[in-house]
């Protein structure tokens, strides 16, 4: 059996084993999730909330933004509190206040430290004990706790109404006035907040650890890091070091054995005949730039809400476009424009790889493009109606705002998008089929490309696996099948296969060498990438097994990045291999940027927050935002731009590119991203980390902390980076537009394709 076949068998076995473990762990999560009782009653028999009321309360929370305004269990937006953490702390203070009045006849805050410590010691076992009766499906709470619920509920009733007493908090949280007009809806949402906080402090049966592994950190109620979090964090570091050592050893003994390939004297890509469907892909790249520019505008607005919570330079913007919507659309557009760039690249390259243009392929490309526009416009309109209280709870799940970060669009639009991805899969498959049937040096790369296309198309079905009232732990599990596996997993395989094809087609790498390198890289990446999903679920109501598997395996995600410098060097060498490669300078530069941000964003900043003990204090802080921005745009965004530029070079081969626009745009994007990370996200995240360790997670996300002058200063310091970044995007957009609107000088004819240009 040759090397290629062994690698294919290894990849197949790896995927079967890891996905089997994924499904088995999902079953465990389903069985061990925090119970949602049929009713919550007091010891005196008063019904506080029913299950239906708790579910309706969650619907209310989702309908006005859900995870896009504050967070639950650390998942969600950075502005506004983590509602589960804040509720827990406020409820504990309310109970301590009641006990202080009863025992000392004074307020809790006025007591000396030793008396406060005595009351805290009394409270912890009472608030942590599990009083859920499984046989009756009932949660019994003390009358004292019911009174505390009333106190905290009154606070949230004020915050989410138009009560002038809480106007300053609404501004700090970037909430528009009277975001939830119905008083009963506010009461029911408070019930959901209570249940979410109850799960964070209540110990699992026969355990001293809460359902969320004592997250969030709050020493007041005994929520401190668990021993398993520390132990598995140490083990993950050890496993990462071992993995890096093995990978370095493999490269040392196997790399550079072949004789260097002599590049061709002319550009082999010029022999690719541009088909009608390939020309039709042009409009995808127009859409990419339009979505990218709108996303940046919404991102700037979202960031500005941290300073003026309800306005933009004095304009009452929140009344028409509140923070919830700007952040929703900003995060969704990030995925949409990057995905559109990659979908367009696939549709362009599939006929190029196979040399085959299937019947009605152009019609399919155009139909998919129209569908993408309908999905964006329709889903965004539904979300605006939901947040502005114009849709109603009954229709919100299907057509409005689901409230789950990155998977916010209504179920109808999710189904439509899934159908669109199946159409893309069909278009790719029928165009690649001749290449898949051939037995040449490119067949394995085509096969791996098609495998990634199948996975991208089918894995989005994970977004359809939950229903409106599914348990939040189960929703979180399936949601990260999309966020992690779809975006961070098989899109990576797709990208590696596409880049390898490009270098093989350009005559810079041997097909067999590229095939084995791609297969080996895919195995290494998937070894940590699939089960690494569980590092997102440490504190989502899951078991200790999730921490063990997630921390150990996610450490392997960093292993391939250990040799990222060599990858960057090879890319740079390929870019300088022959004079005609100057035609591909800027796609190559984008690939170099991908290597850099892979190391910094995905590697260094990713591992910074990956271990359980680190994420325990950092989840939902600006340190996670630093990783998110540098990894999502730095890696996937720059890769999308690079692939787009390669396709545009093929679509417009005879034009002299406006190097000034590309050079300025490229460096502005990268410098702007670096500045916003270094000047704002990292220092702000470090301050939050210190607050989380010293005082508790609730304080690191509180209005008191986020309203400090130094925080305002750090937010304003983001402006230079944002402006430079936006200028870079605008310059890239101008370059793309110039290819059609102002093409300028032409090169000498490069073949019969000149007559085919749009």
From TrEMBL:
It comes from the Bacteria. One of its GO terms (molecular function) is heme binding. InterPro entries: Cyt_c_oxase-like_su1_dom (IPR023616), Cyt_c_oxase-like_su1_sf (IPR036927), Cyt_C_Oxase_1 (IPR000883), NorB_cytochrome_c-like (IPR054309). One of its GO terms (biological process) is aerobic respiration. Residues 313-676 form the Cytochrome oxidase subunit I profile domain. The chain crosses the membrane at residues 7-26, 230-249, 284-307, 329-351, 363-386, 413-433, 445-466, 478-506, 518-539, 545-566, 586-609, 629-648, 660-682, 723-741. GO terms for cellular component: membrane. Keywords: Electron transport, Membrane, Respiratory chain, Transmembrane, Transmembrane helix, Transport. This is Nitric-oxide reductase large subunit. It comes from Luteimonas granuli.
